[in-house]
Amino acid sequence: MKNVTFSADEKVIEAARARARARQTTLNEEFRRWLEDYAGTRRSADDVMAWLDEVVKVAHTGGRKFTRDEMNER
Fold it and tell me: pLDDT tens across 34-50, in order?
């Protein structure tokens, strides 16, 4: 991974860091996500939905229905 240096107003950087902390992440990770979006290297929603369609074809639950709590477990 290559490092990139950028300049911005100190107050803007501090506000961005505070926002990242509130989201339990870092400014570096937020910038990385933004850069991937900007460069178009992140998967689009259509790509993800197509991938999910493929997963559904091969994933089997044996007809079992999951409860809401089971589906929301992490």
Answer: 888 888 777 777 787 88
Distance of CA 9 to the CA centre of its chain: 26
> Residues 26, 20: contact at Cβ < 8 Å?
yes
What is Dmax (Cα atoms) for the chain?
57
Contacts for 20 with CB less than 8 Å, ≥ 6 apart:
26, 27, 29, 30
Distances (CA, A) of 16 to 13, 23, 40: 5, 11, 22
What tokens does 50 get? 């197509």
**Residue ranges per structural domain of the chain:** 10-72
Would you say 13 and 27 are in contact if contact means Cβ atoms under 8 Å apart? yes
pTM, two decimal places: 0.53
pLDDT at residue 11, rounded to an integer: 95
